[in-house]
Write a structure and sequence with these properties.
6-stranded parallel sheet; 2 domains; transferase; alpha/beta; single chain; Rossmann fold; about 375 residues; 7-stranded parallel sheet; elongated
Amino acid sequence: MGQLGLWWQRRRVAPADAPLPEIPQGAGPLLLVQVALEARAAFAQVQRRLMRGRPDLRILDAGDPAPAAAETLMQAGPAALLLLGSDLPAALIQAAARRDLPIFLAEGRFGPEDLGWALRASARRALLRQMRAVLVTDPASHSVVLRMGVDRRRATMTGPVAEIRDPLPCSEAERSTLAQLLRGRHAWLAASVPPAEEQAVLAAHHAALAQSHRALLFMAPRDPDRIDPLADEIEASGLVVARRSMDEDPTVEVQVMLTDGPTEMGLWYRLAPVTYLGGTLSGDDAAARHPFEPAALGSAIVHGPHTERHATEWQQLGGAGAARQVNSAEDLAAAIAELSQPDLIATLASNAWTVSTGGADVTMRICAPVLDAIGKAKP
């Protein structure tokens, strides 16, 4: 069935004199890659890491060529083939296998449909067995590829290539000065808060004050024009407010510090052990911040159910127990009050930091065997 499925996938007719694709110039080894649509973002990071490890490497995206074109590509003398994503280009894989090229698949995602006996599933099983290494993103995919016949020694669950984001900068002198003012106080940040969530955030802070009467809220309105009217509303409710826009400090009597909207976020993430990311409770996520921003700076994350804007990253954080989801204003208040406990904050923050920086580790695990194989390729 596998061979019949392969024939079915290869039945496209290509011109006998298919032209050789433009090969990158240089004397370094040639790596053929094929990148599935869902792996395009991952490819950018993988490519950067490969080039750091082998600056003379020539990388050619081979796409999904017809059989004649795949054979023509082999005439360029590639050192290896790297597939990113779950596409299995039959002609390219078979042409590489006939020349004993090392073939690697990374960022693989496989499901129950790959376990059937239809021609397509049979062909995919046969192709997957040609791989030197199969690196998949999740435990379910790992289980599937083993059932597809991949040798257990060649199948590895790495997790996905998460986006690597540089930590947002801040003035260290400013951070140090404010940290001295905050010593011993429980602080939390509500970032990029839309008007629809302002009252929910303030109610959550009242819950935090009930747990710790010295609690401090850093509140970053999504719209900077809301700072002054919001200050008036908060003061009318009986809370003491300071405004960054007026160079006021979060002194001991201050309960809410209004920041300059979306500016200086690197400073507030560093000062606040807990961050609520605005827009995720009401679904008003037009200016939703990336969840890896606070994660990379050691701030535990609370969010609402609306995570469409950065769905992949939120899924990674949720799966690792690295964020607390709330579904209502009441849930937000309960979560913020509970997260005044340092041990709970530390666990969430540690897990979030691991996820936000894990993309570098996964990228390394993908690139290391490829670079090793290229280094051993015959000139």
